[in-house]
Amino acid sequence: MTLIRVPRQRLGAGWKPERHSTPAILEGAQALVPAQLTLEWLAQKFAAERVPVRIGSQDPVSMPLGRAIAAIRRGPRIFLRSQGSTLHYVADWRIQRVPRLCRHIRKPFFTNRDGLAALPPSVRPEFLWVYIGGPGTGSPLHQDVLATHAWMLLIEGCKRWVLYPPDVFDPEEAKHHDVFSPEGAAADNRQGRRPWIGDLRAGDLMFVPSLWWHQVRNLSLTFAITGNFAHATNAVRVIEECARTGREWMIPHLVGN
Predict the structure, then answer these.
(1) How far apart are alpha carbons 31 and 209 in whole angstroms?
(2) N or C: which end of the chain has fewer CB within 10 A?
């Protein structure tokens, strides 16, 4: 299935993604960041900032952002599977720890009633990240933390998104499923799964509803900002996940919101 694309005009008419149960791509969201916020600007202003970098399938290592971006730019312009073990990917860089960068970013309007904002600052989850990667890098199939809704603003490049409804995978099966591989596509056909597929382009904003499975592949050099939030539409699921994962101390704040 092709992902729904929502023109900017419909957003002004009151279309609220958090009220929808399916993912969508919202167009014309580039105003959330200033025009100066480019990958080139980031490399110049925050070159010494240490960031987590995945190299192939290895565990993340810490390195200066400038060095990481240089390694990413030296990578192939198209994805070559034989080079997959050497690709660098800045992933899960928690930019709430970098106030100088955060002040340039406005979150989407539909996060204004984020239930997580009710948590005391000292214990509030850091659910704001930057991702930078070249062709072939990306994220494996997963559901987002604590059953939160998610959004991603793509500032540069193009990302292919593949999403599935919450109930189509057993968690153990999902760990080994790669929709971009021939085996993954064949498994989807056998099981009758119909993924939602779409390309996120520069200036687009992705909305991912609570518990939707998703896998992402970068089609070019990309720079993206992503965040997670709680809302009345997923509050019960978030509270259940807090209880299941030992975060009971969060529940009174969420219930009161």
Answers:
(1) 22
(2) N
Pure H helices in the chain = 8-12, 39-45, 65-74, 99-102, 171-175, 182-191, 235-244, 251-255
Of 29, 37, 40, nearest to 104 by C-alpha is: 37
Per-position DSSP letters for 183-226, written without gaps between them: HHHHHHHHHT---EEEEEETT-EEEE-TT-EEEEEESSSEEEEE
pLDDT digits (tens, 9 = 90+) for 52-101: 999 988 899 999 999 999 999 998 655 555 455 679 999 999 999 999 99
Encoded tokens for 240: 């259940």
Cα–Cα distance list, 103 to 91, 111, 151, 152, 239 (Å): 20, 16, 18, 17, 29
Confidence check: pLDDT of 197 > 80: yes
Task: Report d(CA 166, CA 26) in Å as an integer.
Answer: 21
Contact partners, residue 186, CB within 8 Å, separation at least 6: none
Cβ(132)–Cβ(101) under 8 Å?
A: no
Residue 58 φ/ψ, nearest 5 degrees: -70, 160
Query: Is the distance from CB of 212 to CB of 163 less than 8 angstroms?
Result: yes
